Every structure is written in structure tokens, then in C-alpha cells.
Amino acid sequence: MGQSVRNGAQVSAASDGKAPRTARGERTLRKILDAARGEFGERGFADSSIVAITQRAGVALGTFYTYFDSKEAVFRALVQDMSSQVRDRVAPAMEGATGFFDGERRALAAFLRFAREHRDVYRIIDEAEFVEHAAYREHYETTAIRIAARFAAARDKGEIAADLSDEDLEILAWADMGANVFVGLRFSVWASTDPDHVAEVTNRLLTKGLAR
Amino acid sequence: MGQSVRNGAQVSAASDGKAPRTARGERTLRKILDAARGEFGERGFADSSIVAITQRAGVALGTFYTYFDSKEAVFRALVQDMSSQVRDRVAPAMEGATGFFDGERRALAAFLRFAREHRDVYRIIDEAEFVEHAAYREHYETTAIRIAARFAAARDKGEIAADLSDEDLEILAWADMGANVFVGLRFSVWASTDPDHVAEVTNRLLTKGLAR
């Protein structure tokens, strides 16, 4: 979870000019983000408060303002942080895959596990559509670009159909992302169906749909 | 658009015991729902008001209460109404299809056209997650059941793979719905890409993914 902070994401996590400069500062920032996730996830943006976030985090109110300018700023940072967490959880799950399709199946299973453990991710990212629209859009655009790049690499290696243009792959990346988000909502957030099974059935669309 | 009202959806559109009993009443209810779509779509739930809805509809405040008990009630009715409108737009587009896969492609193209003409649909249904969660969930559950039923009918007619269980088809219906919602967001709401092209590329996943 601290991964994204350690890897330099602190540049965007804290407000401008407020990035932590020490390991201790990074830990405090992490505590604030985790507390914000609990607060926004349970109460929603409108009913959440900076005071409640600092109480959950066990830090002073002034400490909050060391890192963030406003409730909007910490919400925006949280959306970016959750987006990074999804990425950091999915990427290692793909290591050791026997090929493109196996990698995509592993990626989806890892995402479904993440969604099951962090059911509040959906509520927070969905609320961003209304509270921080740019962060909402950035989350999906960044994810779609990442998926399309994997598709293009597989095409260039001859693992999937060669006739798929980059434009086709962008459409298919959005379709794939939407499929993953919705099976996650239905089978990991609203229910708790075996992630490996759901990933395997869903992956059928990709495996055959993109086959050479 | 009046289709769903004429077909008996007025039972759920107006609040309990407030269903219109005349054609004129149905037209007034329709005017209120269309005004509510404009108001909620532009301003969001929190900043919308019953007074502004009646002004947009050109009806007296008392007339609003003839049909609805509250702002929540008209919002709930609107989500159900938009869900019915999507259904009523997609169903006829599938008539004359040469088979299951052609029908699904037509359904998606019709949905993409609807989303392009009614960009506020996304905002309203997405906000329902927070304002009227039951209506939000019902919209997607109903849609997924309809898609899964089409899949099952195609399987039983031998048009798609026979080894797909009803449980598999439920997972695949959610995946398909998510794919459609996300390509609609990206290519019909945020951009205005040719719906037939997007539907054809996206349909590749189904056509090959569910092939016999």
C-alpha cells in the first residue's frame, strides 16, 4: 500500500508544495489517506469532515493542513491513491503468466480480490464523478491506456489477432475495463463469488474474442 | 418515450396511489419526468428543487404533488423511466436481426445512439447509486437479467456454445453490460464516435467469445 507513495506518487498525493520530505512524513500521509478512505467510504463526501478524518488517523488538525489544502484535495488524492493501489495489486499478479490471456485472467482475479477486500473503492471512485470529475476521468483513462498497451504488445508479439488496429484496441480496452468493473461490482462488492471462477468465465470473452 | 407510461409503467412512475387516470394526466406526468431529467441532469440531485422542476414542466406546484410525494420519489421514478426508455429503444432495434450476434450488435448500436442523444442518462443513473441505491441496483439487475435471458435463448437454439451454464451466462451478461456501459461513456458521452463502428468492434468479444 505504501508502494505508490515510495515510488514518487507523493508528488500528486499531497497538495502542491506539501509533499512529505521524510519517511515519517510519508507514514503520516499514508495514515491520513487510509483514514480518508474509511471516512469517505462510509459517509460519502458531503457528510465527511476533515476533523473526522484527523480523528480516525490520530493526527492533529494542523497536521492535515501540512499535507492537504482542503477536503476536495484529500478526496482527489485518495482517488489517485486507490487507482495506484489497484495498479500495484494487479501488476505483480501478472508476473509468471504463461502468456497474454493467462496474464489477463490473473489480472482480473487480482482485481476481484482487491474489490472484495476494499468494497469502498467503488463508492469512492463512483462519487468522484460528481465531486472531482477530472480525477474520475483520469482514473479510467489511465487504466484504459494501460490495458490497450498490453493488448498492443500482445498483438505485436503475435499472441492475438494481427488485424486489430490501435483504434480497435482502444475500444476493446474500454469494453474489457467495463466488463471487469461490472463483474467486480456484482460478484465481489454485492456478493462474494470465487474470484478465480468469475475471472475464468469472464476471460472467455477476451480469450476467444481476441484470438488469432 | 410515452411507451413505458402507456404500457402500464405508470404504476411505478407516480408515487403510490397517485397514478394518472386519464390520457391528459399521463401527458402531465410525462412533462414532469422530462423536466426532472433536465433539472437533475444539469444540476445534480442536491441542487435540484421541486419548484424548478415544475417551472421547467410548466405545471403548478400542486400538480407535482398530485403525482409525487417528494424529490426522492420523482428521482426514483426518473431512474425507472430512463431504464424503461433504454429498453424500449433497444428492443425494436433487434427486430429483423439475422441471428443472435447480429441482434446483440444492433442492440449495442441502438444503446450507443441513445447515450449520445441523452448524455444526462449516465449522470442520473450514476447519481442514483448515492441518492436511491435500490433503484440503481434494480436498473442494473433488471438489465443483466434481460441480457442473460437472451444469451440463454441463443444457447438453447444452438446459436452459441452449449457448454455455458446459466451461472456462466449471468457472469457473461454482467461483463457484456459493463462493456456496453463503458464504451457508451467513452465513445458516446465523452466523444461522439460512430456508434455502428464501436458496436462492431465491441461485438467481436461476444461473437467469438460465445461462439460454438
UniProtKB/TrEMBL annotation, chains A, B:
<dbReference type="InterPro" id="IPR001647">
    <property type="entry name" value="HTH_TetR"/>
</dbReference>
<protein>
    <recommendedName>
        <fullName>HTH tetR-type domain-containing protein</fullName>
    </recommendedName>
</protein>
<feature type="compositionally biased region" description="Polar residues">
    <location>
        <begin position="1"/>
        <end position="13"/>
    </location>
</feature>
<dbReference type="InterPro" id="IPR009057">
    <property type="entry name" value="Homeodomain-like_sf"/>
</dbReference>
<keyword id="KW-0805">Transcription regulation</keyword>
<feature type="DNA-binding region" description="H-T-H motif">
    <location>
        <begin position="49"/>
        <end position="68"/>
    </location>
</feature>
<dbReference type="Pfam" id="PF00440">
    <property type="entry name" value="TetR_N"/>
</dbReference>
<dbReference type="InterPro" id="IPR023772">
    <property type="entry name" value="DNA-bd_HTH_TetR-type_CS"/>
</dbReference>
<dbReference type="InterPro" id="IPR036271">
    <property type="entry name" value="Tet_transcr_reg_TetR-rel_C_sf"/>
</dbReference>
<dbReference type="InterPro" id="IPR050109">
    <property type="entry name" value="HTH-type_TetR-like_transc_reg"/>
</dbReference>
<feature type="region of interest" description="Disordered">
    <location>
        <begin position="1"/>
        <end position="24"/>
    </location>
</feature>
<keyword id="KW-0804">Transcription</keyword>
<keyword id="KW-0238">DNA-binding</keyword>
<feature type="domain" description="HTH tetR-type">
    <location>
        <begin position="26"/>
        <end position="86"/>
    </location>
</feature>
